[in-house]
Amino acid sequence: MNDVMNDNTVTKACIIDEVYERVNALQEEESEQVITKKEASEYVEAVLETMKDELARGQEIKVSGFGKFEVRAKGRRMGRNPRTNVEIEIPARCVLRFKVSQVLKDRLNGKR
Amino acid sequence: MTKSQLIEAVSERINLPKKRAEDIVNAVFDTMADALVENRRIEVRGFGSFSIREYDARMGRNPRTNEAVEVDAKKSIHFKVGKELRERVADVEN
Which residue of A1, A98, A105 is in closest CB contact with B79? Predict the structure, then answer.
Protein backbone atom coordinates (compact mmCIF):
# COMPACT_ATOMS: atom_id res chain seq x y z
CA MET A 1 0.00 0.00 0.00
CA ASN A 2 0.85 3.67 -0.25
CA ASP A 3 3.95 4.96 1.54
CA VAL A 4 1.93 7.92 2.85
CA MET A 5 0.77 5.38 5.40
CA ASN A 6 4.00 5.17 7.31
CA ASP A 7 2.89 3.69 10.62
CA ASN A 8 0.76 0.66 11.09
CA THR A 9 -2.58 2.45 11.45
CA VAL A 10 -4.66 3.35 8.45
CA THR A 11 -6.63 6.55 9.07
CA LYS A 12 -9.39 8.20 7.08
CA ALA A 13 -6.77 10.39 5.37
CA CYS A 14 -4.93 7.25 4.23
CA ILE A 15 -8.16 5.76 2.88
CA ILE A 16 -8.87 8.98 0.96
CA ASP A 17 -5.37 8.97 -0.61
CA GLU A 18 -5.69 5.35 -1.60
CA VAL A 19 -9.21 5.78 -3.02
CA TYR A 20 -7.95 8.80 -5.00
CA GLU A 21 -5.19 6.68 -6.53
CA ARG A 22 -7.25 3.60 -7.17
CA VAL A 23 -10.16 5.42 -8.75
CA ASN A 24 -7.87 7.49 -10.98
CA ALA A 25 -5.96 4.38 -12.03
CA LEU A 26 -9.29 3.00 -13.24
CA GLN A 27 -10.14 6.19 -15.12
CA GLU A 28 -6.96 6.10 -17.17
CA GLU A 29 -7.98 2.78 -18.61
CA GLU A 30 -11.49 3.95 -19.32
CA SER A 31 -10.45 7.48 -20.40
CA GLU A 32 -12.94 9.03 -18.02
CA GLN A 33 -12.54 12.14 -15.93
CA VAL A 34 -10.05 11.93 -13.09
CA ILE A 35 -11.03 13.03 -9.59
CA THR A 36 -9.22 15.54 -7.38
CA LYS A 37 -8.04 14.88 -3.82
CA LYS A 38 -10.79 17.15 -2.59
CA GLU A 39 -13.41 15.16 -4.47
CA ALA A 40 -11.97 11.88 -3.20
CA SER A 41 -12.33 13.25 0.32
CA GLU A 42 -15.96 14.31 -0.25
CA TYR A 43 -16.81 10.93 -1.74
CA VAL A 44 -15.26 8.92 1.07
CA GLU A 45 -17.08 11.12 3.61
CA ALA A 46 -20.33 10.51 1.71
CA VAL A 47 -19.82 6.74 1.93
CA LEU A 48 -19.17 6.92 5.68
CA GLU A 49 -22.07 9.32 6.37
CA THR A 50 -24.46 7.18 4.33
CA MET A 51 -23.40 4.11 6.32
CA LYS A 52 -23.75 5.92 9.65
CA ASP A 53 -27.22 7.22 8.76
CA GLU A 54 -28.35 3.76 7.75
CA LEU A 55 -27.04 2.18 10.96
CA ALA A 56 -28.57 4.98 13.05
CA ARG A 57 -31.92 3.92 11.56
CA GLY A 58 -31.31 0.42 12.88
CA GLN A 59 -30.62 -1.05 9.44
CA GLU A 60 -27.86 -3.54 8.74
CA ILE A 61 -25.23 -3.13 6.04
CA LYS A 62 -23.87 -6.15 4.21
CA VAL A 63 -20.77 -5.70 2.08
CA SER A 64 -19.80 -8.84 0.20
CA GLY A 65 -16.12 -9.68 0.58
CA PHE A 66 -15.83 -7.45 3.65
CA GLY A 67 -18.43 -8.09 6.29
CA LYS A 68 -21.74 -7.22 7.84
CA PHE A 69 -22.60 -4.42 10.26
CA GLU A 70 -25.70 -5.03 12.31
CA VAL A 71 -27.59 -3.24 15.02
CA ARG A 72 -28.58 -5.44 17.93
CA ALA A 73 -30.88 -4.71 20.83
CA LYS A 74 -29.43 -5.27 24.29
CA GLY A 75 -31.68 -5.70 27.29
CA ARG A 76 -31.47 -3.59 30.43
CA ARG A 77 -29.22 -5.05 33.10
CA MET A 78 -27.64 -4.25 36.41
CA GLY A 79 -24.03 -3.22 36.35
CA ARG A 80 -21.56 -2.11 38.98
CA ASN A 81 -19.06 0.69 39.01
CA PRO A 82 -15.89 -1.30 39.69
CA ARG A 83 -14.26 1.66 41.45
CA THR A 84 -17.04 2.61 43.86
CA ASN A 85 -18.81 -0.77 43.88
CA VAL A 86 -22.11 1.05 43.49
CA GLU A 87 -24.78 -0.83 41.53
CA ILE A 88 -26.31 1.00 38.62
CA GLU A 89 -28.89 0.06 36.07
CA ILE A 90 -27.63 -0.11 32.49
CA PRO A 91 -30.65 0.76 30.36
CA ALA A 92 -31.75 -1.20 27.29
CA ARG A 93 -29.90 0.02 24.24
CA CYS A 94 -28.74 -0.98 20.80
CA VAL A 95 -25.18 -1.84 19.91
CA LEU A 96 -23.35 -2.22 16.62
CA ARG A 97 -21.80 -5.55 15.76
CA PHE A 98 -19.45 -6.34 12.90
CA LYS A 99 -19.13 -9.81 11.48
CA VAL A 100 -16.21 -10.32 9.12
CA SER A 101 -17.03 -12.09 5.84
CA GLN A 102 -15.72 -15.59 5.25
CA VAL A 103 -13.90 -14.35 2.13
CA LEU A 104 -11.96 -11.73 4.10
CA LYS A 105 -11.35 -14.19 6.94
CA ASP A 106 -9.84 -16.63 4.44
CA ARG A 107 -7.67 -13.91 2.90
CA LEU A 108 -6.50 -12.93 6.38
CA ASN A 109 -5.49 -16.50 7.06
CA GLY A 110 -3.75 -16.95 3.72
CA LYS A 111 -6.32 -19.34 2.32
CA ARG A 112 -6.99 -17.38 -0.85
CA MET B 1 -28.65 -2.49 2.94
CA THR B 2 -26.39 -4.32 0.51
CA LYS B 3 -23.34 -2.91 -1.23
CA SER B 4 -25.34 -2.12 -4.37
CA GLN B 5 -27.91 -0.25 -2.27
CA LEU B 6 -25.09 1.63 -0.56
CA ILE B 7 -23.74 2.59 -3.99
CA GLU B 8 -27.18 3.84 -5.00
CA ALA B 9 -27.61 5.81 -1.78
CA VAL B 10 -24.18 7.46 -2.13
CA SER B 11 -24.92 8.28 -5.77
CA GLU B 12 -28.19 9.99 -4.79
CA ARG B 13 -26.78 11.71 -1.73
CA ILE B 14 -24.08 13.65 -3.56
CA ASN B 15 -25.50 13.48 -7.07
CA LEU B 16 -22.72 11.30 -8.46
CA PRO B 17 -23.07 9.05 -11.52
CA LYS B 18 -23.73 5.51 -10.36
CA LYS B 19 -20.65 4.10 -12.06
CA ARG B 20 -18.44 6.57 -10.20
CA ALA B 21 -20.19 5.87 -6.88
CA GLU B 22 -19.60 2.18 -7.51
CA ASP B 23 -15.87 2.72 -8.12
CA ILE B 24 -15.63 4.82 -4.94
CA VAL B 25 -17.46 2.33 -2.70
CA ASN B 26 -15.43 -0.58 -4.11
CA ALA B 27 -12.19 1.35 -3.62
CA VAL B 28 -13.09 2.13 0.01
CA PHE B 29 -13.77 -1.48 0.97
CA ASP B 30 -10.91 -2.91 -1.13
CA THR B 31 -8.53 -0.45 0.53
CA MET B 32 -9.73 -1.43 3.99
CA ALA B 33 -9.67 -5.18 3.27
CA ASP B 34 -6.16 -4.96 1.77
CA ALA B 35 -4.91 -2.99 4.80
CA LEU B 36 -6.28 -5.63 7.18
CA VAL B 37 -4.74 -8.45 5.13
CA GLU B 38 -1.43 -6.57 5.47
CA ASN B 39 -1.91 -6.77 9.24
CA ARG B 40 -2.66 -3.10 9.68
CA ARG B 41 -5.32 -1.57 11.87
CA ILE B 42 -7.83 0.96 10.62
CA GLU B 43 -9.14 3.88 12.60
CA VAL B 44 -11.89 6.11 11.26
CA ARG B 45 -12.97 8.88 13.65
CA GLY B 46 -16.66 8.86 14.43
CA PHE B 47 -17.14 5.49 12.79
CA GLY B 48 -14.90 2.96 14.47
CA SER B 49 -11.71 0.98 14.32
CA PHE B 50 -10.79 -2.42 12.97
CA SER B 51 -7.93 -4.40 14.44
CA ILE B 52 -6.48 -7.84 13.94
CA ARG B 53 -6.86 -10.38 16.71
CA GLU B 54 -4.59 -13.41 16.66
CA TYR B 55 -5.67 -16.65 18.23
CA ASP B 56 -3.26 -19.46 19.13
CA ALA B 57 -3.75 -23.02 17.97
CA ARG B 58 -5.66 -24.99 20.57
CA MET B 59 -7.19 -28.36 21.18
CA GLY B 60 -10.91 -28.34 20.61
CA ARG B 61 -13.56 -31.00 20.63
CA ASN B 62 -16.13 -31.98 18.05
CA PRO B 63 -19.30 -31.58 20.12
CA ARG B 64 -21.12 -34.26 18.13
CA THR B 65 -18.53 -37.02 18.24
CA ASN B 66 -16.68 -35.82 21.33
CA GLU B 67 -13.45 -36.32 19.41
CA ALA B 68 -10.46 -34.10 20.19
CA VAL B 69 -9.41 -31.98 17.21
CA GLU B 70 -6.62 -29.49 16.80
CA VAL B 71 -7.87 -26.01 15.95
CA ASP B 72 -5.29 -24.06 13.92
CA ALA B 73 -3.99 -20.66 14.94
CA LYS B 74 -6.02 -18.00 13.21
CA LYS B 75 -6.52 -14.30 12.72
CA SER B 76 -9.78 -12.47 12.86
CA ILE B 77 -10.96 -8.88 12.85
CA HIS B 78 -12.26 -7.00 15.82
CA PHE B 79 -14.40 -3.93 15.23
CA LYS B 80 -14.81 -1.32 17.93
CA VAL B 81 -17.53 1.21 17.24
CA GLY B 82 -16.57 4.89 17.48
CA LYS B 83 -18.13 7.18 20.06
CA GLU B 84 -20.34 9.16 17.71
CA LEU B 85 -21.79 6.10 15.99
CA ARG B 86 -22.13 4.20 19.26
CA GLU B 87 -24.24 7.02 20.68
CA ARG B 88 -26.38 7.28 17.55
CA VAL B 89 -26.97 3.52 17.40
CA ALA B 90 -27.76 3.29 21.15
CA ASP B 91 -30.93 5.30 20.62
CA VAL B 92 -32.33 3.11 17.86
CA GLU B 93 -35.77 1.80 18.78
CA ASN B 94 -36.38 -1.73 17.59
Answer: A98
Global ipTM = 0.90
Q: What is the number of alpha carbons within 13 Å of residue A66 lying toward its C-beta?
A: 21
- As a whole number of angstroms, the distance between CA A41 and CA A32 comes to 19
Instruction: Write out residues 20-79 of A within 8 Å (CB-CB) of B.
Output: 22-23, 26, 35, 42-44, 46-52, 54-67, 69, 71, 73
CATH number of B41-94: 4.10.520.10
What's the whole-number mean pLDDT along residues A11-27? Answer: 93
The distance of A79 to chain B (nearest Cα, Å) reads 17
Q: Which residues of B touch A64 (CB under 8 A)?
A: 2-3
* Distance of residue B17 Cα from the nearest chain A Cα, in angstroms: 12
Give per-residue pLDDT as tens, A31-59: 568 899 999 999 999 999 999 999 999 99
pLDDT single digits (tens) A25-36? 887 666 568 899
What are the phi and psi torsion angles at B56 (to 5°)? -70, 160
